[in-house]
Amino acid sequence: MKSNIYAFIPLIILVVLGIAFAVGLRNDPREMRSVMIDRPMPEFILQPVLEDQQPFAFFDLAGQVSLVNIFGSWCAACVIEHPILMRIAHREGVAIYGVAWRDTAIDASNWLQRYGNPYRKTGLDAESLLAIDLGVTGAPETFLIDKSGNIRFKQVGPISGEIWEQTIKPMILLLEAEE
To answer: ω before 140 within 30° of 0 (cis)?
Structure first.
């Protein structure tokens, strides 16, 4: 009798593992909650990408709701996202700041000249120091920062029109209404 019970143990283990994998596959990795949510934006000072700008620093974000967009001239998905950022900056009036990640100032500057510049300031993070502090895993990634300088949302991947209208814009409106 005992030998019959032991024969089912591998089957039971296989079923349990199958259920665990099935549950894991249903999770969207883009919806993984960042450990930075509701924490202060790390302190940073980045050299400007554009010659006519001052360095981009964490204190530039103070007192306003803003987006910090991680991009790169080498990033194909950033080209797809860029028209949405241009619209947000110019039609919606949202403060957007850019971080050129793993890039050069020349390449990032040329990229902004080619596609347009939605950013109030653009800093260069060639050595990934800010990206590491933020837990960036790829470009584009965008962080929503509240008036107090806290990270309130992280968008992994390109912002689409749908993501803007259904997720990010409503959050911005709520944060702007806060005292």
So the answer is: yes
Cα–Cα distance measured from residue 101 to residue 127, given in angstroms and rounded to the nearest whole number: 8
| 115, 123 Cβ separation under 8 angstroms | no
Q: Could you tell me the domains of the chain?
A: 30-177 (3.40.30.10)
* Among 138, 176, 142, CA closest to 160: 142
Which residue in the block uniquely carries the two structure tokens 């596609």? 115
Calpha distance 2→14 (Å, rounded): 20
* C-alpha separations of 56 from 32, 44, 53 in Å: 28, 8, 8
| Residue-by-residue pLDDT tens, the chain, 179 positions | 555 767 767 666 666 665 656 555 555 554 545 677 889 999 999 999 999 999 999 999 999 999 999 999 999 999 999 999 999 999 999 999 999 999 999 999 999 999 999 999 999 999 999 999 999 999 999 999 999 999 999 999 999 999 999 999 999 999 999 87
Rounded CA separation 178/176 (Å): 5
DSSP string, 18-63: HHHHHHHHHS-GGGPPPTTTTSBPPP-EEEESSTTSPPEEGGGGTT
Nearest Cα residue to 49 out of 115, 99, 96: 99
